[in-house]
Design goal:
Elements: H1 2-26, E1 29-36, E2 43-48, E3 53-59, E4 64-69, E5 75-82, E6 88-97, E7 101-107, E8 115-117, H2 120-130, H3 137-147, H4 152-160, H5 167-175, H6 179-182, H7 185-195, E9 209-211, E10 217-219, E11 227-233, H8 238-246, H9 248-254, E12 260-266, H10 271-280, E13 286-288, H11 297-301, E14 309-313, E15 319-324, H12 332-340
Parallel strand pairs: 1-7, 11-12, 12-13
Antiparallel strand pairs: 1-4, 2-3, 2-5, 5-6, 7-8, 9-10, 11-14, 14-15
Length: 342
């Protein structure tokens, strides 16, 4: 009888251990990637865009590689590839990483469109992006996000579009979130924005503080009495870089003898990239940052959702115009400056 009881105890413990192991597996992600036509020893970095952090590094061997780890929340991630010399190569893939078994299959020449299996929020993201071909795209996209509210993918997309949605509607969206999503960094960011008052045309500027590349601190208020173009940019933003090289030097040259200045505020988080891009763009005007990126207080105060985003401030410190994006040859900023400097 004792032997039978002992055997049952051993069996119970074994089953319990097996269940615990399964639980551990469910709390981690396992990423299996099939990368057709990728050369052996191609370096792969799994980059968490939400955390701005490298989660893992691997190498392609026999057209495949795997990664295992854990994320606290489903996160927008990128697979970035590098050749043997360390140079970035074009194929990449973005997807939502979750603590699940996820399989990605793609080919070198078109890895951007690689298939993703096992990630629920990646599937949801794919459905969302299909709406971009719709005639009534904007309405259908917003309806989709509200219908599928309680997840990180929808919160992410709504954060990008927050300026185009009323704050009352954003508060209604926030009420649809469970405790996990509402208390997540993105959930709290959305709620904070929905409860704050936007800076708008006709408002006085909000103070910003940043350091230049030499470490000297500057305040926006130090330049009160000048016409100021406050520009938010980043090293990884191609239109920003073009504007730095093509438009801003011409403005500096034209208004050199007037009470005008440009203040570029970098939304980079890595000083190295900020320095390299500033030198490459030959920025000679005031160029500052707090290196806190889009999640910093300055970006939130000015409700920055896309860059480049410039604010034209008159001599009385009043915001008279906001510009989003850059298209060569439009000269929209120059025309508005002309109205202020006569």
């Amino acid at each position: 009888m004792k032997r039978i009881i002992l055997a049952l105890l051993i069996l119970t413990v074994a089953i319990s251990c097996k269940n615990d192991n399964n639980k551990i597996l469910r709390e981690n992600y396992k990423l299996n990637v099939y990368a057709k036509n990728f050369p052996d020893s191609t370096k792969v970095i799994l980059w968490n865009r939400d955390l701005d952090k490298n989660l893992d590094t691997s190498y392609v061997i026999n057209e495949t590689f795997s990664m295992i780890g854990k994320v606290n929340l489903p996160s927008l991630c990128y697979l970035n590839f590098f050749d043997k010399a360390g140079k970035s190569i074009n194929p990449y893939k973005f997807f939502f990483l979750e603590n699940k078994d996820i399989t990605i299959r793609g080919e070198y020449s078109n890895f951007l469109n690689a298939s993703v299996e096992g990630s629920v929020q990646s599937d949801l993201s794919s459905e969302y992006y299909k709406l971009r071909d719709s005639e009534f795209r904007n309405k259908q996209e917003i309806d989709f996000l509200f219908k599928n509210a309680n997840n990180q993918m929808s919160i992410s997309q709504l954060l990008y579009r927050k300026k185009k949605i009323s704050k009352d509607s954003l508060l209604l969206f926030c009420k649809k979130l469970d405790s996990t999503n509402s208390n997540s960094p993105k959930g709290l960011e959305l709620l904070t924005y929905a409860k704050t008052i936007d800076i708008k045309i006709g408002d006085k500027f909000k103070e910003i503080i940043g350091k230049d590349l030499k470490g000297k601190e500057h305040k926006l208020s130090d330049f009160y009495g000048k016409v100021i173009l406050l520009d938010f940019w980043g090293s990884g933003c191609a239109p920003c870089r073009l504007q730095n090289k093509n438009e801003f030097p011409k403005l500096i040259e034209k208004y050199n003898n007037d009470d005008f200045m440009i203040i570029s505020y970098s939304l980079d988080t890595k000083e190295k990239y900020w320095i390299e891009s500033s030198e490459d763009d030959k920025i000679t005007w005031l160029n500052i940052s707090d290196l806190k990126g889009m999640k910093g207080g300055t970006a939130k105060d000015y409700a920055i959702t896309a860059i480049p985003n410039s604010f034209l401030i008159d001599k009385n410190g009043i915001i008279v115009k906001s510009f989003i994006g850059y298209k060569k040859g439009q000269n929209l900023i120059e025309h508005e400056i002309d109205k202020l400097i006569k």
